[in-house]
Structure formats: C-alpha cells, structure tokens
Amino acid sequence: MRVPFKSLKNLTIAALGGLFGLLAFGETAQAAYPWELNFGLFGPNYDGRVKPCEAALGTITSQFQEKESTFWNSALQITAYGQIHETAFRPWQSDIIPRRYCSGEVQLSDGSLHKVHFSIIEDGGFAGFGQGIEWCVTGLDRNWAYNPSCRAARP
Fold it and tell me: Which residue positions does the secretion signal occupy (predicted)?
C-alpha cells in the first residue's frame, strides 16, 4: 500500500518542479504591438445630460422609506423638501462620469429637519442604464457609508 502513495508523491513533486521550471525560465512579458492596443475597445461617450436636482426627489423619497423600513425597522419617511439647490456640476476633469451634486433640507415624518446631499450620475443606473442617484440624509447614515456627516456624498 505504501508504494503507490510514495510514487504519487514523487510524481506530484516532479510535476510541480517542472511547472516552476517553465515559469522561471519562460519568456518575459512584452508590450503590446500598436495594432493590439485598444482593439475593439471604445471609451465611454458621455453627453453631460444630467437631470436637474428636483428630478431625483421622488427616487430619494422611495429609497429612503424602503431602507428605513427594511434595514432599520423604522417608520420614518420623508414628508417634505426645502431649499434644494445645485452645489456642483462636473466638478472634476471632463472625462470623468458627469455628476450633478445637490443639497437641501428634508422634513421627516417625526417632524425633524435634516440636511440631504445627493448626486445624479449619468449612466449610473443598474448595469449602466439610466441615471443613478446616490444620496445621504445627515444624521441618518446609520451604516456610515458616507460618514462623517454625509461628507462623502458631497463633491
């Protein structure tokens, strides 16, 4: 019984040694030829057409209610918005994904007022289709995704 295992062990060691030998003495990587560069790859073509700030409010309201009830077992809902304004549009260089950054205030169902910061992202929806929205309500970022005080949701 011991002989097959011993020969299998030797065979495995020999195979690993041969593999490492091929890797150690193989050819080095070379740079791509000019006709291989970016063949069939086309970069993003952003138009910079991003909806105004007010267009995102319905989505934020529904996502906020869903998040609070599903994950935090809370009945909080956004009941009103105020002072919604744009804080930046494409604040970085032109080849970055276009975003419109907005801020304002929200009133919740418990009567409290909080700041809200959000961005509307061109081609930022599911699988790159449609415009995506990232948002944060100050004081209710319970998983600290945009901490501190929703700073990461601003430009």
Answer: 1-31
Cα-Cα-Cα-Cα torsion 22, 24, 26, 27, nearest 10 degrees, comes to: 170
Are 26 and 98 members of one domain? Answer: no
User: Is the pTM for the entire model greater than 0.85?
Assistant: no
Domain that includes residue 9, residue range = 2-36
For residue 44, being part of any structural domain is answered with: no
Residues 62 and 32 in one domain: no
DSSP string for 56-84: GHHHHHHHHHHHHHHHS-----EEEEEEE
pLDDT digits (tens, 9 = 90+) for 28-58: 777 767 666 666 656 667 778 889 999 999 9
Other Cβ atoms closer than 10 A to 67: 17
Dihedral, 109, 72, 120, 110 alpha carbons, nearest 10: 10
96 shares a domain with 25: no
* Residue 91, pLDDT above cutoff 60: yes
